[in-house]
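FORM 12-B: Structure-to-Sequence Request
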């Protein structure tokens, strides 16, 4: 189904799972893997990327409209699913952008096949110990505070997530 601003949404079946995938733009392919708080229908950040790149934004298995197969047990399993997605879409040397939990998956993908990717961008990646600072416990902070804490530069947070509020997160059922 096509959406505004040139975005197309499809369901891609692979490795025993049906993934919901949004895609827009043209140029070098960029796979954007979202945070564990889910993926809002589309962030301004995705539109900005689509002005220069072929942007692919899948919903993780078990999130949004994507199914979660019973065999899926680990971040490494998710990395294999996304390697399969890139192969199914016939995409070579994509850049990876991982936000939070998606950063953990992207890092795992890069360790599995480092020469397969053009660039790797990790934003507040889970699963990776920072050289300094805290690793927040998601069970005791709000989703918004957790995502915001992943940014040293709060203006960068605002450029990516906009002026998101706790009320919007409730509206998005996050």
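FORM 12-B RESPONSE
SEQUENCE OUT:
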């Amino acid at each position: 189904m096509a959406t505004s601003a040139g975005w197309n949404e499809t369901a891609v079946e692979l490795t025993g799972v049906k993934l919901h995938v949004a895609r827009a733009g043209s140029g070098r392919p960029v796979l954007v893997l979202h945070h564990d708080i889910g993926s809002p229908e589309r962030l301004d950040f995705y539109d900005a990327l689509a002005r220069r790149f072929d942007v692919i934004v899948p919903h993780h298995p078990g999130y949004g409209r994507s199914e979660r197969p019973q065999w899926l047990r680990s971040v490494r399993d998710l990395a294999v699913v996304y390697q399969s997605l890139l192969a199914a879409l016939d995409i070579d040397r994509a850049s990876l952008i991982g936000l939070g939990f998606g950063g953990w998956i992207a890092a795992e993908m890069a360790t599995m096949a480092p020469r397969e990717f053009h660039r790797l961008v990790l934003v507040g990646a889970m699963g990776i110990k920072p050289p300094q600072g805290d690793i927040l416990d998601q069970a005791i902070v709000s989703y918004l505070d957790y995502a915001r804490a992943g940014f040293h530069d709060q203006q960068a947070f605002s450029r990516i997530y906009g002026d998101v509020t706790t009320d919007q997160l409730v509206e998005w059922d996050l």
